């Protein structure tokens, strides 16, 4: 696939009769189906994924597989089929795993979005000049005192409310003692005895990416959320030197501790991903895992499944009411979703191997780097740390007013699940809903709502009801059509690029089926051209009437007239469709009709009707609702 | 002025309600009736024996292994020779005796004091963070979006006095070793 496509003018493309070069490349049927009916506006690679610039988690939400990846997967499958041993190993692995039940608890540390630090008025920062935002207390200068910065409570409380926790009226801070170069005071200030929030929960659904065994939903209880200090950043210089930057010391963190209620690596990753998105939506923690704004420590243990071998006498550990657990190991400092699921799977295999061969699991702390095939021991049992927790006598208890909690609850921004539910009700697909939420931090979604709002007004004025599928079509245009426009013009999204009212005026006749998709696209791109050229923009209805773009619904006879010769000219393809069920070839006919015929070139044909006619003439059952 | 006569003066200034004469009061208060030494294990050379003996429980032996573990936890240097270790163990033993004497008091129903603050209901009320106290912080936020409303913290004011004052210290000034704007420390060698 060449990336060096000559940039074609949009106007030229929509009106030209040149053959669509997209179809001359070998592409798979599913791509063909989806691209059929589109004009050569989209002569960019065969992949369907639309580049969205500011997406952080796009790669993980992607369900549609690009063509290149499909080819790679095919090759992989062929190689796996050839190597019989590989296949055998996988099946024994699966057997072993089915004998053992995995239990995972996750401790997440999230950097709060605040202006100042937790116990000093120094500013928070991500990558400023080293040691430029350090107060005396942050550097643990003797005699310096902590000053609790109450603004840090706002994001902390919002996070706790969003995760359904009970806010404790009174909470206190404690010292957790250990020596390390990133901790100048020799202790970390945390909330060990009385955290500010307890007993929350989060529900994960299939669309969050949980393991199929947990479908359709699983609720993970959250034990508590506590506020604590972050440590300094260290740069390691081999063999034993460390460069220290104290900007991050005392940056407020919340630690979210889950109950050991997760049983699959995929669900663990889904849990982390969902919490990240919830924290972002309430503006509590906006730095993602990739910049170190969110870190995970996972606790992994296994036990024999009860129904197979009865109770496991070694599984005598318990945690917060969850009984019968095996000895756990802790894997610290996982900084990506992939690392979380990989580390858990690899640790599970290691523990199974140890227990199956008669050994015992040591309660130790381990580390994991993405890409390695095993976890490694960080601290042995002898090197175990005794934190000697003690209440910090320098810090007053935090007492939170009920009126504040109520206000934050009332003004909490909409959570991702609620937004997606309402979008799906409007007809938007789950995937598009997720995409809308994440593009430009929700600005694209706001634009979507603007367009829907404008359309609703237009319909009201006309005295008509908005069609049921309006949400789906608007979302499609706001994400994909606008996205393509942004790419070809190399611009970033702003709501003024194509004002919501203009898009609504274009979509209204489309929804009334008065113009075809192609015409709508033409108008859409024209709109941008006019905006750049600063000509007075004629109104959309004027253009439609002036250029005779309004679709006169062509009769069935016209469609048949176009279709029949094509079918006659390609008897082999017709045979393949009828007898071998190669229904993908139907879309080839549709494509031929849309770009080969005069009516098609003028944009007067509707792809769906063309497909129906072809199917009817060949004698094949109706296809999927598009 | 000697201490007793100072006390004498003070008490002549207060009203005495116990009915005792000033001389008798002076005599009563001049002799200590309790010393913290009563909480320590009885020493071999009995110089300042007090009338009251402690009734603290006997302390168990501390092993050398425990001592070394505690020293490691506290990042304190290990004893250099046997004699020093013996002295450390002896001191630690006395300290533990003292602690156990304190612990022998019945404190059921008494909330532990965490710090020297007003920990009463009234104190809690005074330090409650409600809407009034947090209004400043809430004003630092804005709402963006017409329909999909989101909260954003306004970008930090560059000339915030509070921040400037806090950061106005030469952190690297007394660093033994530094490279550019970084502190430099030697740590444990890592195996990568």
Task: Report on this structure.
- The complex is a heterodimer of chains A (626) and B (192).
- Helices cover 41% and strands 16% of the residues of chain A.
- Chain A has 626 residues and is α+β, with helices and mostly antiparallel strands.
- Chain A has 4 domains: 4-65, no CATH class; 100-391, no CATH class; 437-546, no CATH class; 556-625, no CATH class.
- A 9-stranded mixed beta sheet of chain A has the order 2-6-7-10-1-11-14-15-16. In chain A, strands 5-4-17 form a 3-stranded antiparallel beta sheet, with no helix packed on it.
- The longest helix of chain A is centred in the middle third of the chain and has 20 residues, at 337-356.
- With 192 residues, chain B is mostly helical.
- Among the domains of chain B are: 1-31; 36-42 and 56-101, no CATH class.
- In chain B, α1 packs across α2.
- The termini of chain B are far apart.
- The model of chain B is unreliable at 45-56 (pLDDT under 50).
- Chains A and B meet through α6, β9, β18, α10 and α13 of A and β1, α6, β3, α7 and β5 of B.
- β9 of chain A pairs antiparallel with β5 of chain B, so a sheet runs across the interface.
- Chain B: One of its GO terms (cellular component) is glutamyl-tRNA(Gln) amidotransferase complex.
- Chain B: This is Glutamyl-tRNA amidotransferase complex subunit Gta3 domain-containing protein.
């Amino acid at each position: 696939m060449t990336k060096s496509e000559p940039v074609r003018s949009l106007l030229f493309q929509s009106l030209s009769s040149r053959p669509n070069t997209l179809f001359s490349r070998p592409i798979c049927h599913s791509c063909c189906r989806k691209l059929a009916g589109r004009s050569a506006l989209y002569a960019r690679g065969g992949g369907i994924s639309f580049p969205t610039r500011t997406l952080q988690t796009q790669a993980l939400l992607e369900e549609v597989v690009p063509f290149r990846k499909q080819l790679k997967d095919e090759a992989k499958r062929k190689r796996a089929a050839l190597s019989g041993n590989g296949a055998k190993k996988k099946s024994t692995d699966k057997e072993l795993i089915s004998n053992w039940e995995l239990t995972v608890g996750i401790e997440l540390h999230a950097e709060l979005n605040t202006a100042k630090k937790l116990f000093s008025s120094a500013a928070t920062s991500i990558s400023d000049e080293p040691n430029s935002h350090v107060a005396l207390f942050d550097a643990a200068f003797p005699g310096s005192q902590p000053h609790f910065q109450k603004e840090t409570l706002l994001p902390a409380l919002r996070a706790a409310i969003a995760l359904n926790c009970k806010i404790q009226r009174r909470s206190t801070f404690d010292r957790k003692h250990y020596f390390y170069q990133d901790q100048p005071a020799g202790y970390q200030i945390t909330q060990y005895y009385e955290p500010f929030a307890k007993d929350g929960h989060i529900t994960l659904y299939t669309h969050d990416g949980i393991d199929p065994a947990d479908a359709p939903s699983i609720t993970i209880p959250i034990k508590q959320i506590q506020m604590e200090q972050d440590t300094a950043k260290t740069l390691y210089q081999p063999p034993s030197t460390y460069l220290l930057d104290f900007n991050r010391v005392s940056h407020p963190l919340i630690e979210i501790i889950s109950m050991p209620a997760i049983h699959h690596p995929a669900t663990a990753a889904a849990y982390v991903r969902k919490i990240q998105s919830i924290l972002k939506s309430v503006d509590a923690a906006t730095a993602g895992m990739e910049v170190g704004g969110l870190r995970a420590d996972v606790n992994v243990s296994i036990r024999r499944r009860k129904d197979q071998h009865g109770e496991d006498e070694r599984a005598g550990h318990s945690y917060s009411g969850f009984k019968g657990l095996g000895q756990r190991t802790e894997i610290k400092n996982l900084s990506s979703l992939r690392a979380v699921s990989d580390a858990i799977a690899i640790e599970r295999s290691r523990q199974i191997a140890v227990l199956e061969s008669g050994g015992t699991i040591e309660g130790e702390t381990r580390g994991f780097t993405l890409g390695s095939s095993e976890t490694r021991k960080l601290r042995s049992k002898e090197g175990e740390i005794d934190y000697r927790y003690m209440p910090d006598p320098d810090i007053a208890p935090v007492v939170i007013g009920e009126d504040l909690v109520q206000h934050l609850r009332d003004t909490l921004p909409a959570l991702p699940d609620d937004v997606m539910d309402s979008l799906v009700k409007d007809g938007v697909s789950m995937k598009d809903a997720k995409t809308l939420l994440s593009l430009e931090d929700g600005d694209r979604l706001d634009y979507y709502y603007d367009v829907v709002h404008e359309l609703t007004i237009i319909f009201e004025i006309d005295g008509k009801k908005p069609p049921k599928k309006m949400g789906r079509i608007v979302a499609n245009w706001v994400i994909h059509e606008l996205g393509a426009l942004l790419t070809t013009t190399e611009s970033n999204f702003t709501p003024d690029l194509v004002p919501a009212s203009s898009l609504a005026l274009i979509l209204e006749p489309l929804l009334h089926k008065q113009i075809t998709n192609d015409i709508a696209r033409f108008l859409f791109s024209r709109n941008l051209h006019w905006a750049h050229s600063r000509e007075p923009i004629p109104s959309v209805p004027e253009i439609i009437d002036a250029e005779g773009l309004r679709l006169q619904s062509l009769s069935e006879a016209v469609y048949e007239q176009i279709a029949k010769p094509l079918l006659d000219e390609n008897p082999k393809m017709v045979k393949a469709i009828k007898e071998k069920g190669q229904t993908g070839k139907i879309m080839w006919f549709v494509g031929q009709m849309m770009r080969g015929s005069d009516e098609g070139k003028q944009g007067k044909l509707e792809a769906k009707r063309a497909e129906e006619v072809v199917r009817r003439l060949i004698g094949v059952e109706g296809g999927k609702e598009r | 002025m000697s201490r007793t006569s100072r006390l004498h003066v003070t008490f002549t200034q207060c009203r005495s309600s116990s009915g005792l004469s000033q001389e008798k009061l002076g005599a009563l208060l001049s002799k200590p009736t309790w010393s913290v030494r009563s909480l320590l294990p009885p020493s071999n050379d009995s110089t300042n024996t007090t009338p009251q003996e402690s009734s603290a429980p006997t302390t168990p032996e501390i092993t050398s292994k425990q001592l070394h573990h505690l020293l490691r936890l506290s990042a304190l240097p290990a004893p250099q020779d046997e004699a020093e270790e013996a002295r450390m163990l002896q001191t630690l033993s006395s300290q533990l005796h003292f602690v156990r004497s304190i612990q022998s008091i019945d404190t059921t129903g008494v909330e532990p004091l965490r710090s020297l603050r007003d920990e009463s209901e009234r104190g809690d009320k005074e330090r409650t963070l409600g809407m009034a106290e947090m209004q400043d912080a809430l004003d630092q936020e804005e709402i963006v979006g017409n329909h999909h409303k989101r909260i954003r913290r306004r970008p930090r004011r560059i000339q915030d006095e509070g921040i400037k004052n806090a950061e106005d210290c030469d952190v690297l000034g007394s660093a033994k070793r530094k490279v550019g704007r970084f502190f430099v420390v030697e740590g444990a060698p890592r195996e990568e």
